[in-house]
Design brief:
GO molecular function, one term: carnitine O-palmitoyltransferase activity
GO cellular component, one term: mitochondrial outer membrane
Family: Belongs to the carnitine/choline acetyltransferase family.
Helix content: 40-55%
CATH architecture of the largest domain: 2-Layer Sandwich
Protein name: carnitine O-palmitoyltransferase
Number of helices: 24
Number of strands: 20
Strand content: 5-15%
CATH topology of the largest domain: Chloramphenicol Acetyltransferase
Radius of gyration: 29 Å
Largest sheet: 8 strands, mixed
Keywords: Acyltransferase, Fatty acid metabolism, Lipid metabolism, Membrane, Mitochondrion, Transferase, Transmembrane, Transmembrane helix, Transport
Strand order of the largest sheet: 13-7-6-10-11-12-3-18
Distance between the termini: 38 Å
CATH class of the largest domain: Alpha Beta
Amino acid sequence: MAEAHQAVAFQFTVTPEGIDLQLSHQALTEIYLSGLRSWKKRLIRLKNSVITGVYPASPSSWLFVVIAILATMYTRSDPSMGLIAKIQEHLPLSPYRHIFCQTVVSAVLFSTMLWLSLIFTMRLCLKQLLSYHRWMFEQHGKMSNTTKVWMALVRIFSGRQPLLYSYQGSLPNLPVPAIKDTLKRYLESVRPLMDSTEFERMTKLASEFESSLGHRLQWYLKLKALWAANYVSDWWEEYIYLRGRSPIMVNSNYYGMDFLYVTPTPIQAARAGNTIHAFLLYRRKLNREEIKPVSTVIPLCAAQCERMFNTTRTPGEETDTVQHWQDSDYIAVYHRGRYFRLWVYQAGRLLSPREIEYQIQRILDDPSSPSPGEEKLGALTAGDRVPWAKVRKEYFSTGVNKRSLDCIEKAAFFVTLDDDEQGMMGEDPAASLDRYAKSLLHGKCYDRWFDKSFSVVIYKNGKNGLNAEHSWADAPVVAHLWEYALATDSFQLGYNEEGHCKGEVDSSLPRPQKLNWEIPSECQEQVAQSLAVAQALADDLDFHVFSFRVFGKGKIKKCRMSPDAFIQLALQLAYYRVTVAHDREMFCLTYEASMTRLFREGRTETVRSCSNESCAFIRALEGGEFPNVRLFRSASEKHQHLYRMAMTGAGIDRHLFCLYVVSKYLGVESPFLKEVLSEPWRLSTSQTPIQQVELFDLVNHPEYISCGGGFGPVADDGYGVSYSIVGENMINFHISCKHSCPDTGAHKFGAQIKKALLDLLHLLCPDQSESKKTEASPPEDKKDQ
């Protein structure tokens, strides 16, 4: 109860002599400093709002315009062409105000209006400039004069030293494609997957849809596009993520891995100290908008960053909701079946890594036992959503359970101190990587809080990892955070010779608070049921993670081909060979995630990688004839074109999805849309590129690389493939499928991917592939202490 007493600022007792008031100066000081920190954050937020609001100009430019106008008036010329005099006529008269003062006030008002007009004009010009996407379709190394002029204008109108959200108001809205174009592209994408009879039937359905219901739905969609910042994102979040009633564990959440070959420290508490501190440093930069906007050639939308911290997904019987709080001064920690609240601020300052390590060690050393029903409580977030919503409403809406649940949901993020050891280790490092991936994706099915925006996992041997909820943001946003945390942990914060965090400890820190629960037996029964559902899902998951080190993007680029297109063709070739082994010889609908963050509030679009060109090439390769390299390059160029179309708002699937949502609102049925949206994605793929290359030195320290991350399969009879291209000579793959499908196998598919990569390189550059017949040996596993 010591923690509870420390949290009370004052106590009073009524006695016969009167009221005996006892003040806790320490608690009052903490309240004062906490309030001061909160007000500082509000002022910073207000200042940033002003700076972002006037971008690409700056607040100081207002003073420049005012001085310029007043200086011009001093020379007895009127730059306003009579407007200043008109403003002066409408100012309220006062016998105490000198005519000169009225003139100055009128000039300042005119200057302000002129300044705001210039800002509006500059933002409008920048928005138009950012709407130009022809540069993406130009041949690499051959830039047109139009694009050169465009790039110069973008630099002129972009301003200097932008904050994270400075470009938000200047980003264009996602355009609604013409329905005729979308249907044409859709039919082209399914042609290699259908025989002539099926394709003729689908063409007829598409034609009927276009001539009847399609234009009506399109009208409503265009109306929404005029009103909303993005006509897709809110419906995508709600209907694809939040309305899903199946478990989000494996089916929706995804993970990120630690360094592949390095464990910075083997001390669990120390690794937790640096990692947690790095996340909180990122949050501080995020709150101050000091993070540099991510950009390709032009800036990308940063709206998804807003809900990164202090966010949770709340279950509902029909739909879930995403709740976000402005601030949180603590994190939630799980260890051996117990939940703790760990304050990360003391006297208004952020705890040092050494102090966080000290607090984490206190949790690790805590001998207390879990409350009845507490140990496996997290299974509720891993099971079906409807039972969790009902249990939450019945047993966690009042009393001590509500207070403890609020502590978890309102925490900055969630941390699991895992008693297992993970990473690439032991006599079978390949199998250990597979276990590591499964551990991050589902753990024991109850030792993660899958509803939190992200959960950090710290293992007993010092390895760490991350599990992220998908509804609030996509993987590149979380990857940006994860890259910063890994780099800051190892290259900035570091460890002392004993492997502990650097710095001193304030021994007066209050102990982490153990959360209390009163879980009745009925609730415990539902926890057991949710755990059974989640455990069955986890047991059915087959995973394989490997690093391909024979060659990487460096060799592919020397062959003058896009690395992403090369890998996508290898994946399709591997899938085709797997189906041939099962006497099916088929291609499948292939999903590759592409971002649409060139537009305001953009998220993702689907690249339908399986094209007529890719299928023609693979059939030629597997048909016994040695295919012309021109077929290979044609398939690659087609893939690049599809990817660029998706990025620039001319994709297929998000448009059709939104048309389907409109049809449901109107209560009308479309056989065409119903069939399109029921097609299974048997090969779901995603690339996670390294965004902050400057944080890592892959030349001198190639061992400091993350293995990337992965996700579960989308279809029960399909594969989920995540890959990351690291440096010039490595490609990491994360392959998932289900044991329950007799036709799939993660290791079997992985072997076919390796073979396909080698075969394609041999076809493209036979002279280079001969030099590397065997896989390069990985760097030696290190532990820098």
